[in-house]
Write a structure and sequence with these properties.
Organism: Musa acuminata subsp. malaccensis
Subcellular location: Nucleus
CATH class of one domain: Mainly Alpha
Number of strands: 13
Keywords: Nucleus
Protein name: Serine/threonine-protein phosphatase 4 regulatory subunit 3-like central domain-containing protein
Oligomer: single chain
Mean pLDDT: 75
GO molecular function: protein phosphatase regulator activity
Structural class: alpha+beta
């Protein structure tokens, strides 16, 4: 080992001088040589060897795990040699050689140490030991030594020997009784140490023997005589006199009763008697015994159908006394609590059976009790069900007619119980309204019940428990179910904090549902009354609430905050806090920083414009400065956007005006054409502009003014000379005249005239004002082509109540000309309303495009 471990550079690094401490306290130089760690001849132990140049050994020192080696400075290693009974030292020429040898000595000592541990563990007991000595007062020290000094492997062997000796525990118990009778304290102390050592063997088989009905009380009695305690303990008296086993329901199975008693005693030994002595492994073994016993008991009881039915029958019975019902509820609570030792599938099956039997009705009655122990038991049962399967409790709450259980939970949350119970009620309600762990219909139903019937109650408790700055109540005080007035001083601050936490949870879980409540019931204002409380943590809770609301980035809620100035109490609390660096200071700054980072412009402008004077004293803070910069940026962007919006709006108005002109043009053109067609259908004989008379009465259907079937004759058509009485054109075999199509010149003249008319009407409408156009667009549901009448005179309205366009255009009216109906498809009704034109009119009028033209001025068609 030494040859392989030497540095390869040079042997000078291992050159040392050997010194020995003499009687006068001086170091005597013993010589110079090279040091190595190797096996000496004829030895199996590693040794430190210093060899001279003449191959003579200056030192041969066996390295021992018990020796204490010291390294001084960087080049000296010293120790005390037990064989030579003196101190030795090695002075190295180089520090590298000293470090090399020091590392090797340390490694050898570590190996020797672990080897010694293994030897102690496996070889401390004589392998030839076949049994333990007989249990007698004289042999107790020897037995105690064997048990106490046993290693890991020997512990198993000793436990086996104890179990093989059937007389070991009987003799030990007899010896204990004898010593206790004669008050032999030395013997009792010896027995205590032996029993404690047997517990430390951590053998499940030995534990079964110890905790058996035959020996357990005497074993516990032997543990009363602890030599480290000033007086004798009285564990047996406590178990016999003070511990009373109560059977709410008689248990007929003796094995179940035995396991119940054993479980209690094991727990008593573990938690009371030997709590200071047992190691973690032994405590884990005892806990395993308790868990196994609980599982055994619950398994047998849950499979006993008659037992469960009898239990619930007694709790429902009116003849059962209040005290008996109390014991039954406590037993049910313990029964559900011990069910945690079952497998999850078995526990779920058991809880479903209990729900079917009506356990939630029992819990509802327990929560109405004035006994806080029963209330605590009821909440524990509900939490056990919610942790395993929340749908069981949600289904019950939904099916309940009056929802009394949920109402009791809300009342319990605001009642003056202990702090732990407040947290239990809060946790139950949070799990019930959790939107992530419920199905759709079940989730919506339970949330609707909570918001409609119970949320306002919690918010009113917040408001009634706070006062405004002038010490006046914020809202009228609440009237309790008993008719009394609930004072704000009754509610504990912890309850208010829990309510605020629940509201924050609801904001995150049900943003839409709670938004409606906030906007309709002014709930946010009531929560912010907490800023008037003296308790600083309640003010911080209000800040946390408003921060949660703003984090939803809901436009309606943000506008509600600005409209109702809801950040005012937050800013006032921040100003009042001053420069004190606390949670309130940090919370408000974080809120303002969030508003700035998320670029909530409406809140940025609101905060700076409303509270900048108050915030000036905090202008040295970077967050306040950044908020002001963000405000200026928002104003710049807003001005730019307003300019662009104005230009875009003007363009849109012009575009809409042009579109309106075109739409009115085509719509009114259609109205005029249909009106002209209707007028021609009314006259039995009408005269065309070219002087040709057509008999419309002989037609079976209505025909337009222009017939496009004779387009091929347009080129050869010559208008006849004008006569006083236009003649009929009888070219058609069937007697129906053919109407020639107007030329393009005539059509263009008509279009120009209509365009001039439309421009005149448009000027009149624009002069009427901008409000009329807006009203015609948004105010009614009529056709967008219709316009409001320019005159209120009834004479200017047609039969359908619409303005006569001939009056609007300013044309002269003739009493012989009748206004046309706008809807040509109304047929007979329009003809009944308007008198017919006489056929023998000496001066017939011609209707062209709703214009009255005298017969002396024919309308020529080219």
């Amino acid at each position: 080992m030494g040859a392989q471990g030497k540095p390869s550079s040079s042997l000078n690094s291992l050159l040392v001088k050997v010194y020995r401490l003499i009687d006068e306290g001086k170091w005597d130089d013993q010589g110079t040589g090279h040091v190595r760690i190797d096996y000496p001849e004829g030895s199996e132990d590693l040794s430190l060897i210093v060899e001279e140049e003449e191959n003579e050994n200056l030192i041969v020192h066996r390295i021992s795990a018990s020796e204490i080696y010291r390294r001084q400075e960087d080049t000296i290693i010293s120790w005390r040699d037990s064989k030579l009974a003196t101190d030795l030292a090695l002075s190295f020429q180089e520090a590298t050689g000293c470090s090399f040898i020091w590392d090797q000595i340390s490694e050898v000592q570590r190996n020797l140490h672990f080897s010694n541990l293994a030897d102690d563990s496996f070889h401390t007991i004589n392998s030839e030991l076949r049994d333990l000595p007989s249990v007698e007062l004289s042999s107790l020290p020897f037995i105690l030594k064997i048990v106490v000094e046993s290693g890991i492997t020997d512990q198993l062997r000793i436990a086996e020997l104890i179990l093989q000796d059937q007389e070991f525990f009987p003799k030990l118990i007899d010896l204990f009784r004898m010593c206790e009778k004669v008050k032999n304290m030395d013997g009792l102390y010896m027995i205590f140490r032996l029993v404690k050592a047997i517990f430390c063997l951590n053998s499940p088989q030995v534990f079964d023997r110890i905790f058996g009905e035959e020996y357990v009380l005497d074993i516990i009695g032997s543990l009363e005589y602890d030599p480290e305690l000033p007086q004798v303990q009285r564990h047996r008296a406590f178990l016999k006199e003070h511990v009373v086993f109560k059977e709410a329901i008689p248990i007929k199975d003796s094995s179940v009763l035995s396991k119940i008693h054993q479980t209690y005693r094991v727990a008593y030994v573990k938690d009371v008697i030997l709590a200071r002595v047992l190691d973690e492994a032994t405590i884990a073994s005892l806990s395993s015994i308790i868990h196994g016993n609980n599982s055994f008991v619950i398994s047998l009881l849950k499979d006993d159908t008659s037992f469960i039915q009898e239990l619930f029958a007694r709790m429902r019975s009116t003849s059962t006394s209040a005290e008996s019902k109390r014991e039954l509820v406590l037993f049910l609570h313990e029964f559900c609590n011990l069910s945690k030792s079952l497998q999850p599938v078995q526990q779920l099956r058991l809880f479903r059976d209990l729900a079917a039997e009506g356990i939630f009705d029992i819990v509802t009655d327990a929560l109405q009790s004035q006994d806080r122990k029963l209330v605590s038991a009821g909440t524990d049962i509900l939490i056990l069900f919610l942790n395993l399967d929340p749908s069981l409790l949600r289904t019950y709450v939904i099916q309940q007619e009056a929802n009394s259980l949920l109402g009791l939970l809300v009342e319990g949350m605001i009642s003056n119980f202990t702090e732990d119970m407040h947290c239990q009620f809060l946790e139950i309600i949070r799990i019930l309204v959790d939107s992530h762990n419920a199905s759709g219909l079940q989730r919506d139903a339970i949330i609707d019940i909570f918001y409609e019937k119970h949320l306002n109650r919690l918010i009113d408790v917040l408001a009634s428990s706070c006062r405004t700055r002038n010490n006046s109540p914020t809202i009228p005080r609440l009237v309790t179910s008993c008719g009394g007035v609930e004072s704000h001083a009754v509610t504990k601050p912890e309850i208010l904090s829990n309510i605020c936490d629940l509201l924050c949870y609801c904001v995150v879980q049900h943003p839409y549902k709670i938004k409606c409540n906030f906007l309709m019931n002014n709930a946010m204002e009531k929560v912010l009354f907490l800023t008037n409380r003296r308790e600083r943590f309640l003010v911080v809770a209000a800040v946390r609430f408003i921060r949660t609301v703003i984090s939803r980035n809901d436009e309606h809620l943000l506008h509600h905050i600005v409209k109702n100035n809801l950040l005012k109490p937050i800013i006032e609390a921040f100003i009042k806090n001053g420069d004190r660096y606390n949670m309130l200071h940090s919370g408000v700054l974080e809120l303002l920083e969030y508003i700035r980072k998320e670029n909530l412009k409406i809140l940025v402008i609101y905060v700076v414009e409303c509270f900048w004077e108050q915030l000036l004293k905090f202008q040295h803070l970077g967050i306040i400065q950044a908020l002001k910069i963000k405000y200026e940026q928002c104003l710049e962007k807003s001005e730019a956007n307003n300019t662009n919006t104005a230009v875009d709006s003007q363009k849109r108005i012009e575009e809409r005006t042009l579109e309106k002109e075109e739409e009115d043009y085509f719509n009114e053109d259609s109205d005029e054409d249909s009106g002209a067609q209707h007028m021609h259908n009314q006259h039995a004989h009408a005269t065309l502009p070219n002087g040709t008379k057509v008999n419309y009465s002989s037609r079976s259907g209505s025909v337009g003014l222009v017939d496009y079937e004779d387009d091929e004759d347009d080129d050869d058509y010559n208008p006849p000379p004008r006569k006083s009485e236009p003649s009929m054109d009888n070219d058609d075999d069937d007697g129906f005249p053919k109407i020639k199509r107007k030329s393009s010149t005539t059509v263009s003249l008509k279009d120009e005239k209509l365009l001039v008319t439309k421009k005149q009407k448009l000027e009149v409408r624009l002069n009427d004002g901008e409000d009329a156009s807006v009203a015609s667009t948004c105010g009614n549901h009529d056709s967008p082509c219709k316009s409001e009448p320019l005159h209120d005179s009834p004479s200017q309205l047609d039969s359908n109540g619409r303005p006569d366009e001939s009056d609007i255009e300013g044309e002269s009216a003739n009493p012989q000309i009748h206004r046309l109906s706008d809807a040509s498809d109304t047929g007979q009704s329009s003809r009944d309303d308007c008198p017919s034109v006489p056929h023998n009119n000496p001066s017939p009028k011609r209707v062209v495009n709703d214009k009255n033209i005298s017969g002396s001025e024919p309308f020529s068609v080219r």
